[in-house]
């Protein structure tokens, strides 16, 4: 079923209800998504049901859904559309759990289909990321249209923790590094003792003065997460039941430590593929060429991310392959230069580009970044 709304406790109920019923859900945000995109998603998914909250009823009424809409706010025992008997149906590991739409290079969004086994594996890994306390309150900034929302919600509830929509009141926070930076600059946020970040490059120093820190990495196509690190400098090691290969882009061989290549990810989290996009699925999801166990049929997802193994056996993120340029005949990865600049003392951010066949770098000093945050707050 399609789930429409914005982040709220009602939407959390909607997610749990759809999953408990044995169905899969597709999140939609009427604020972030134009109506044309929502209509495309409805057609692409062949939806049988739309679940929303009351404040979006007027918007949904314009989508011509007949009687297929349910509002979470108005469900009660007098509604004859439902049975409130205890559900006995349980989902199989291979059943669809959700489909997340990501941007496509052609302008047509891609629906990534994930079954239950991948997210369950990642949620179980939540226990290894941080040491939680019974009084912990979890806050997360990810909109529910992104898959980290699933990890944040179900991981928190699975640990028996409380969740709050007010991230400033929380002791355990799951968010992007940029939001974490702004949050920690506010000296009034003294409750934060554990910080889990992901979704974008992590700046140096973000782990300072944090009791527990975790830098998480993973594309939607591998069920939320694939690796974790306790340092902003790396994306770390593979999570349990996840395989990571650094592959040479020219001959498909495995790269030794220190040599950069494309990250291919295998294991239980690899998604089913892209909905109604068989050619793209076949291009990005291939049989695992490094699997030596003939009894196990595995696939890998080709991420397009450039990484390398360091001497500690952790992965270092270097950027995207499609950001690679040539200058004076040399292949240069702009993300790698940017990462090196951001390691320098006094630099909080950097952007590198090619201008008139020359490399040009723009940097923001840590002092300037601090002044911007102060002015905005």
What does this entry look like structurally?
- GO terms for molecular function: phosphopantetheine binding.
- This protein is an alpha/beta fold and 377 residues long.
- The protein folds into three domains: 1-91, Rossmann fold, CATH 3.40.50; 114-324, Rossmann fold (3-Layer(aba) Sandwich); 325-365, ANL, C-terminal domain (GMP Synthetase, Chain A, domain 3), CATH 3.30.300.
- 23% of the residues lie in helices and 30% in strands.
- The protein has helices spanning 9-20, 35-45, 57-61, 117-129, 148-158, 177-185, 278-284, 334-342, 366-376; strands at residues 2-4, 26-28, 50-52, 69-71, 96-102, 110-115, 137-140, 162-164, 172-175, 194-198, 212-217, 227-229, 237-238, 242-247, 261-267, 273-274, 285-287, 299-309, 315-320, 324-327, 330-333, 347-355, 358-365.
- The strands form six sheets. The chain has a seven-stranded mixed beta sheet with strand order 8-7-9-10-11-12-13, sandwiched between helices. Strands 14, 15, 17, 18 and 19 form a five-stranded antiparallel beta sheet that branches. A four-stranded parallel beta sheet has the order 2-1-3-4, sandwiched between helices.
- The model is unreliable at 372-377 (pLDDT under 50).
Question: What characteristics describe this protein?
Answer:
single chain; 377 residues; alpha/beta; Rossmann fold; GMP Synthetase, Chain A, domain 3; seven-stranded mixed β-sheet; five-stranded antiparallel β-sheet; 9 helices; 23% helix; disordered C terminus; AMP-bd_C_sf; AMP-dep_synth/lig_dom; phosphopantetheine binding
